[in-house]
Each structure stands twice: as structure tokens, then as C-alpha cells.
Amino acid sequence: MNFLAHIYLSGDNELITIGNFVADGIRGNKYKNYPEDIQIGIQLHRAIDTFTDAHPIFRKCTKRLHKNYGHYSGVIIDIFYDHFLAKNWKDYSEIPLADYINDFYKSLNKNFDILPEKFQRLTPIIIEGNWLLSYATIEGIQLVLNGMNRRTKGRSKMNEATNELKIHYEAFEQDFKAFFKELITYSNAKRLEIEKAYNT
């Protein structure tokens, strides 16, 4: 899953949410250098990724892209799923998406000093470009994919993946909704399990 989904799946704890958000910037056991709630968020992020990568619905979605994008297919589907989460946000939260995202940006700024170096560099860029809100439109997804293609020096061709998104839009959306329902159940239970392990 991509940024917005990981944030959403963290629950209401501010530091768990930040840990889930920054987890890709923390390797191996280095997560133990962070406050306990950040550690919980990092472990939750890793569990969500493992569940997602192995899930048959997610794998079915990647197969639609594999011919043209190879091992980048999973990254692209992560981004597509953030699009469908943003687009259908009212189905998952009573808080308007723009308000939810602005509150998260405030939390990032408040806790900026404990962010990993990679995310200290990235956070101002995310906020300035309002990446999380941009996921709600295909145009916003196009900008994200353009940026990721640049980072692969054009090898991934990810900038072209909105073509497949448009062609298979309804199928991708239906798959996302079915998958995300299961992921919410899994992540809620996993978060409680990890929190319990820290509290015993």
C-alpha cells in the first residue's frame, strides 16, 4: 500500500501513524531506536505490506500490468489503490479528506525532529505539492507516476500506467474495495496484537 492507505490504517494514535508513514525509510532493526509507538507503526507497516503482497486480489491486479511494467507492477497498484481510497474516502471516514490530510501534515511538522532523514527531506515536498490530496484524481496520479518514472531514469515507464488505469478502471476499483475491506480487518487486529506485545 502507498502513503494514504498506511496513514489511514494506523488508527488514531499520532506516533503509530507517523511510524507507519516513515517505515520504508527505516531498515532492519533500526526501528528499535525510535519511541515505542513509532516502533509499533513500523511493525504494522511491514505486516500490512506482507499481507498485501501475498493477497490474491492484489496479485490479480498486478498481473494486469506485468507485461508492460514487470516488477514495478506492485508499486503502481499501490498508487492506484491510494487513488481509489482517496476517491471513495467518504466510504471509510466521516472526516473530510482535505481536513484529515491537513491534520496529518500538522502532525508531521510537529514531530519533524524524530522523522528519519529521508522523510525530513521528503515531508516538505509532500506538503508543498499536497501529494496525499492529489491522489484523488487521475491527473494527480499521473504526476506521482511521472515522478517515479524520473527516479528510475525512465526505465520503468510508470508514467504510462494511467493508460491501464483508465482501460481497467472499474475492475481495479472493484478489486480495491474487496481487498481493502479485508485489509482493514487484518490491520486493526494486527495493530492490537502488536500493541499488546509491547504492553506485556
From the structure above, extract its key features.
mainly alpha
Description:
With 200 residues, this protein is an all-alpha fold. Helices cover 72% and strands 0% of the residues. The chain has helices at 3-8, 14-22, 36-54, 56-69, 73-87, 97-110, 117-129, 131-134, 138-151, 162-167, 169-199. The protein is globular, with a radius of gyration of 16 Å. The mean pLDDT is 95.
Number of domains: 1
| Average pLDDT for all residues | 95
Question: Roughly how many Å apart are the termini?
Answer: 29 Å
Secondary structure tally: strands: 0
* Helix run count: 11
Our Rg estimate from Cα atoms comes to 16 Å
> What sort of overall outline do the alpha carbons produce when their principal axes are compared?
globular
Question: Could you estimate the helical fraction of the residues in percent?
Answer: over 70%
